[in-house]
Specification:
Length: 223
């Protein structure tokens, strides 16, 4: 997957008082996606940003806006994020009794549908939906905060999911994303396990040289 490798810096770790600069950093570093973490203080114990902020950011970037909703009742926010300019809209399998309905709503809004899974959730829970989605976002930390350590066993889960995706002939259709605790030092390991996109928050935005860090991810991913 290395040739298709993409980095999605998570603006969760950027300076929230200056998000335009964060978008500029992503441009200068050559990142493909912008990862936008949406938290509702119910599905996770933290509160971040919503559609109005995404709408204000939209004119300042041409990148793919990868909205990661960590919210209950995700169906209620799909249209708002679609109208705000999201390109992909991802929700959690743990947050919905009817994931297919939410996937269909995202498609009706003309966006890529993403499904995310927390580290302790059995992989079987997402299997029935693989044929319907464009993005599979695998969490390698408990969702809620940036800057946590990569959960052991996540790389093995990626391998199992890659096998599942390949068996179903979905390698070209489903983009697998890993989110949480991704650093320069473990980027190669997770890419080799079969992910297409790395989300990196604190490693990029808490670095002294965020642009250089983004470029270093690409050096590793394309090596
Ligand atoms: C956590 C978020 C992640 C977070 C990753 O709930 O979904 O996207 O920003 O941050 P790092 O890369 O610092 O683990
Ligand atoms: Zn995220």
């Amino acid at each position: 997957m290395a040739s298709d490798f993409k980095l999605a810096p998570s603006i969760l770790s950027a300076d929230f008082s200056d998000l335009r600069s964060a978008l500029k950093i992503c441009d200068e570093g050559g990142a493909h996606w912008i990862h936008i973490d949406v938290m509702d203080n119910q599905f996770v114990p933290n509160l971040t940003l919503g559609p109005p902020i995404v709408k204000k950011l939209r004119p300042h970037s041409k990148k793919y806006f990868d909205v990661h909703m960590m919210v209950i009742e995700p169906e209620k926010l799909v249209d708002q994020f679609a109208n705000a300019g999201a390109d992909g809209i991802t929700f959690h399998v743990e947050a919905s009794d009817d994931p297919q309905m939410v996937i269909d709503l995202i498609h009706d809004a003309g966006k890529d549908a993403g499904l995310s899974i927390k580290p302790k959730t059995p992989l079987q829970e997402i299997e029935p939906f693989l044929e319907s989605i464009e993005i599979l976002l695998v969490m390698s930390v408990e969702p809620g905060f940036g800057g946590q350590g990569y959960v052991g066993g996540s790389t093995e889960r990626i391998r199992e999911l890659r096998a599942m995706i390949s068996e179903k002939g979905l390698d070209e259709k489903v983009t697998m994303v890993i989110d949480g605790g991704v650093k320069l030092h473990n980027a190669k390991e997770v890419l080799d396990a079969g992910v297409d996109v790395l989300v990196a928050g604190s490693e990029v935005f808490e670095s002294d040289d965020p642009v250089g860090t983004i470029k270093s991810f690409y050096d590793i991913g394309n090596s």
